[in-house]
């Protein structure tokens, strides 16, 4: 007797459904089933795998294997398809309403929806052979729609399939009263670079870096908006977003499909875009809108708390993207098709973090023509707070900020002086080595001269004696 029979649908000569770019259902089914087996065995659950590899089994054979193993539950893994390419989401099938199968399906489906953000299409009922002829409660899960190009793309990502597998296992374990243990088979420490993180550099560092790279004044000033907005948009590391904006816009010079007038710092497209033409890109009213959309899209990708959001400027705020890309390195092939895209963003981040601040940069509350502090100002321009408290506080903060900037500048000069001193010491060492070598050469010449003189004196002495 085993706890669970896992059935990877299709296989061998039967590929199942095939996605727009040729991904076969049978491959996805087997991967998820094998990953589920690995997870469940580490949790102490006994598993019978119906299909161990890419071989063909008819439905009756699958049922027979599960019945012979005396499995307590049966779970069949499939990928869905539809005639329309917009169909999306996840659903489960059981034989009849009200039984253990329906309860198990609902538990697993809840976990999958929560983990992936896929649309919940509910538990449905069907007279499938694997549901009807099995001796145990049985569920057939349709993970998502391979006929939908976006969800097919997800299925090509092993991390997404791993997420689906873990959700299935957690749902099953919860149903049988055996909660998932995080400490079991703990994963190694991840060395990738999280998108959601406290700022990994100072705002003035990115401004100095941008100026060092001949960025436009507008692009330099956008740093203020990124730093003002990141905390209310998923706590995305603003250094990630700013570096990506530099890559996408050429440090604000643009020159690609769109220009500065689009106020679109990350090349975000419309929800229905099918090509890379200018009209396929969003044209924002203000830079604040464009940067808010940029941060929201990164936050959605990274699985930020509270996402997907109900109200956002992000035109492509699709729920299925939730948690798809948690690390900068994973932007490659996801945000952009280039396989080195994430690495290029990361390289810019490293450059920013190594930048020494040499100039004073004033923070612009009206960066690039978009006021980000208008919550404190009335329509007539007056302060909406009682008295002058806000003005006084702001004045004190400005003084503190100026002091900090002065210290940064001072330390920047100190670092420059240290660099010059190190160069001087290095040059001095070279000169000393050169003098030592020259002295050695002189010593050798002296010895030779002494030998010559001695020989001459010997010759003279001998002639005198004669």
From TrEMBL:
Signal peptide: none annotated. It comes from the Bacteria. GO terms for molecular function: amidase activity; N-acetylmuramoyl-L-alanine amidase activity. PANTHER family: N-ACETYLMURAMOYL-L-ALANINE AMIDASE (PTHR30404), N-ACETYLMURAMOYL-L-ALANINE AMIDASE AMIC (PTHR30404:SF0). Keywords: Hydrolase. This is MurNAc-LAA domain-containing protein. One of its GO terms (cellular component) is outer membrane-bounded periplasmic space. GO terms for biological process: peptidoglycan catabolic process. Residues 63-173 form the MurNAc-LAA domain.
